[in-house]
Amino acid sequence: MSAYNYQLIIKNILEWGVNRAPNKEIVYRDLVRYTWSQFYERVKRLANALEELGVKRGTKVAVLDWDTHRYLELYFAVPMMGAILHTINLRLPPEHILYTMKHAEDEVLVVRDEFLPIVERVKDMLPESLRTFIITSDTGTMPETKLEPAYDYESLVKEASPDYEFPELDENTDATIFYTSGTTGLPKGVIFTHRQITLHTLCVALVSLFPGEFHLTSQDVVMPLVPFFHVHSWGMPYVAALLGTKLVLPGRYDWDLILELMRKEGVTYTYCVPTILHALVYHPKAEEYRDVFSRLRASIGGAALPRGLALRARELGMKVTSGYGLSETCPVLTISGYKEHMLDWPEDKKLEVRLKTGLPIPLVKLRVVNEKGEDVPKDEKSIGEIVVRAPWCTREYYKDPEKTKELWKDGWLHTGDLAVWDEDGYVKIVGRLKFVIKSGGEWISPLILEDLLSTHPAVSEVAVIPVPHEKWGERPIAVIVPKAEYKDKITEDDLRKFMLKLADEGKVAKWWIPDRFIFTDSLPKTGTGKVDVLKLIEQYKTLKLE
User: Fold this and answer.
1) Which of 191, 210, 231 is the last residue of a domain?
2) Which of 87, 180, 268, 526 is catalytic?
3) What backbone torsions phi and psi does residue 258 show, to the nearest 5 degrees?
4) 50 within 8 A of 97, measured Cβ to Cβ
5) What are the pLDDT digits (tens) for 473-519?
6) What average pLDDT does the structure give for the chain?
7) Which of 69, 101, 117, 330 is deepest in the core (most CB within 10 A)?
């Protein structure tokens, strides 16, 4: 008789959390409230229903939905059966959504009723592999649809048996697939296994043992503000299940409702990209919710955390910290916690730590390298590309061996992000390889300029981009969204004087100062809420600079 070969699979995450905290709640908007124990029963019913519809190991089940309790059920039921969950980015252009479904060869589509018209319009263009449609709705009734065969999600769950034994899968079984947002060309597919998701979950949870504002425990109340379709919602649904935290799901984002839910349900932790944090802390009623913000901690990723935004959050009593990861890395690679010698530092000095991209979390090997693949000095000045190894890095771009070879050049995953690092091992991203500004043969960091400009009292949002220049190759310009009370009052000259003052203080080189400051009502955003730099570059590429 041999020893039991324990497999690292998602089932074991959920079962442990449910056993420890069966009565903790999952809340969906102001519509649904149930316990983790009841959630697990519905997950079993859902698995039975999917099996009856022909879902088996390896079947790809795609989802088009907001962040709902049903989506959370699919997060577990589908991979725990041995099938593969395809989380579709519903903010991609329709042609890209179709491309990802065909490329993945989806067989089942779970679609929210409000997205039915979109799917029905392209019914004849859907992949041939797609044979089953499941409709979700908050109305309690099955809507009419041209899709067939179509089933009502709630009826399937209600009528299915609660008795289901999830299989003891091999930990290297594929669990999820999703696609990058396609900022360069068509979206690229990345796949993650049960082992990768389990190790990622354990190591993100482990970070709470170290000092810092990321201190997630079983007593927290968590509200995801990263869409479930985006890189496993940064893996937090799995972490919440492991810890057995109370989970509050916002569905489609409605800022008034979100703030009320935060107050009513006692939310203590959220995570989001900077534009979402901006929407919260600059909400017209933000001052009325100081009681909410004063107990709230937030992890910010997806883009650099601007200093001005962090200071605004701090004004409201909110504690924010930075993290970093990619679609290709499941995603978390770093979180900005403290080392012990930093604990007695003054708050302003600690803020500098939290504004950095962070320190690698357990099991992540991270380097900052030059073009020869050599580590750059840890002097916070020398710029290089971040390359990583971690147990949860995707093994490939799905069906794309050439792009996979580029991604894993020399056995390290190449992020395309440029950074500096310090003697403590903290990294700070200064730009993307594709978007860094090269002026007169020297690099200028758009992120450093954005960080400084964000501290001006008139600036709400800012993006710094390169514009072609006859003499210097490229020069930076700043595209500014002014705060409402400063609109038509702030001028280019005001911002230039502001930056010159910072240059006199040694905070920025004078030749880095943008050649133009352009004011606009809004910045274009990508499907994941980041500023769409490519659109801005295209928009201003013919701008003439003297």
Assistant:
1) 191
2) 180
3) -60, -45
4) no
5) 889 999 999 999 999 899 999 999 999 999 888 888 898 999 999 99
6) 94
7) 330
Q: Classify residue 484 by burial, with Cβ atoms within 10 Å: 0-12, 13-18, 19+.
A: exposed
CB-based burial of residue 503 (10 Å sphere; 0-12 exposed, 13-18 middle, 19+ buried)?
middle
Tell me which DSSP letter residue 521 carries.
Answer: S
CATH of the domain at 479: 3.30.300.30
Question: Are 282 and 309 contacting, i.e. CB atoms less than 8 angstroms apart?
Answer: no
For 103-159, write each residue's pLDDT tens digit.
999 999 999 999 999 899 899 999 999 999 999 999 999 999 999 999 999 999 999
Angle CA(321)–CA(325)–CA(327) in degrees, nearest 5?
140
438 given a catalytic annotation: yes
Output the pLDDT for position 526.
Answer: 83
Which phi and psi (to 5°) does residue 298 adopt?
A: -140, 135
The 10 Å CB-count burial string (b at 16+, else e) for 197-208 is bbbbbbbbbebb
Number of domains in the chain: 2
266: which 2 tokens? Answer: 């006692």
Question: Phi and psi dihedrals of 416, rounded to 5?
Answer: 80, 0
- Is residue 546 pLDDT above 60, yes or no? yes
**Cβ-based burial of 89 (10 A; exposed 0-12, middle 13-18, buried ≥19):** buried
Instruction: Single out the catalytic residue among 264, 349, 399, 438.
Output: 438
**Which domain, by its residues, includes 64?**
10-21+34-191
Among 107, 213, 328, 450, the one annotated catalytic: 328
Residue type at 173? T
In a domain, 78, yes or no: yes
443 is catalytic: yes
Separation of alpha carbons 54 and 51, rounded Å? 5
Active site residue 421: no
Single-letter residue type at 463? A
- 3-state secondary structure at position 151: strand
Which amino acid makes up residue 300? I
Q: Which two tokens stand for residue 191?
A: 């796949």
Active site residue 180: yes
Q: Are 246 and 25 a contacting pair, CB within 8 Å?
A: yes
The candidate with the shortest Cα–Cα distance to 518, out of 485, 543, 538, 542, is 543
Q: Of 43, 217, 51, nearest to 34 (Cα)?
A: 43
Domain contains 249: no
Q: What is the mean pLDDT of residues 376-394?
A: 96
Secondary structure (3-state) at 396 = coil
Using CB atoms within 10 A of its CB, is residue 525 exposed (0-12), middle (13-18) or buried (19+)?
A: middle
